[in-house]
């Protein structure tokens, strides 16, 4: 049984529109009209939003009568350690707003910190910290465009310990400040 992640329908929809591979294996996109399910990173043509249903478990989506996409092959695991990496990613997605240290993640999945970091970097090409920062910035981006909270409130809500670090990481990943991001998206909606 897969670990459910704390993402809303809208957030998962944004991930499939962006073809975001960070969430592969954590949820699956099922299209009611075609009876096909895909990974969030699948590059196939995107379905209408009303025809989409999300599942957290591959067995659950297959029991519901959906078949695997032939393009992204969501039923195929690339490596035997992929299950452990998915557990780590699910932990990061669910704990993004907490202070998370490497030893906390290692204790959760039952491996040493050294092995965890080495395996995670081998499978994702990123450290757990950089992956967590991306998750936090994704969540902050969503909150910037869907709420009227201040940048400071969002910074603290998504787990950054200081506004300066939040601004630095946000600028590095999005090439703009949080305020610029909010203003760009408000203009695009008009």
From TrEMBL:
Residues 86-184 form the HTH araC/xylS-type domain. PANTHER family: ARAC-FAMILY TRANSCRIPTIONAL REGULATOR (PTHR43280), HTH-TYPE TRANSCRIPTIONAL REGULATOR EXSA (PTHR43280:SF2). GO terms for biological process: DNA alkylation repair; methylation. It comes from the Bacteria. SUPFAM superfamilies: Ada DNA repair protein, N-terminal domain (N-Ada 10), Homeodomain-like. It holds the Pfam family Ada_Zn_binding. Its cofactor is Zn(2+). This is Ada metal-binding domain-containing protein. Keywords: Activator, DNA damage, DNA repair, DNA-binding, Metal-binding, Methyltransferase, Transcription, Transcription regulation, Transferase, Zinc. One of its GO terms (molecular function) is zinc ion binding.
